[in-house]
Design goal:
alpha+beta
Length: 231
Amino acid sequence: MEPRKIRIVKKNDEYSQEYQVGDILTVEGTWYGGVHAAGRSGVPVSLDREEYEEWAEQEERRIDPWSYQLGVMDCFCEMVANGLKKLAMSHPFADRRERDSYLAEVKRLCGQYGILYYAEDEAFVTELFPRKMSEGMCLFLFFRTQEVLEEYRELRERQRRLMAQGTYTVQAAQEIAREFGRLLSYPEDGIERLIRKPLADAGCNKEGRSGGCEGADFTAHAGTKEELEHV
């Protein structure tokens, strides 16, 4: 059984050095007017009832990952609905089954806020974010109109064409990243700050091309009408 503890809320004995307001003390016994508790040096002190309150250690509150992810999506949905973001993304998922476990709640949120969603199977890899946060990942996109999704798809298609033509230079990659950042409603200085990271992180070679991603197929999942829910 855990020892009873109290917290000092008032100090009647101004000369005692054994306790101060705010101290947490362990109760060793009781008397008709209060309790005996171990003071700072271990010496028992007698306390009046008005000097303390019962105290119990607060258990650390833990937020489970599923609830945390859902909270993030709720926040982004509200921002999109209120025009603060043109396009928003959920956190990336490494597994489609994990992402799809949120589908019912995503439909509910989009219905609540009056927006659209798209289940993206291949996250857009650009210079905006570290490759490990995007490559091989899947996520949800949130937006208000179909036109926004078309802008996003056109940007991905332009990147694919540049890669296929062998002209996806560092400059081209950075411009694609800038346009993606604007689509996400990031401020210009924020976009530049995200892009200014070591070229090695983007896998660029000496010729100034993003060799690590050149030739790869980054085309978004084409999707169907059923995958775009305005619920």
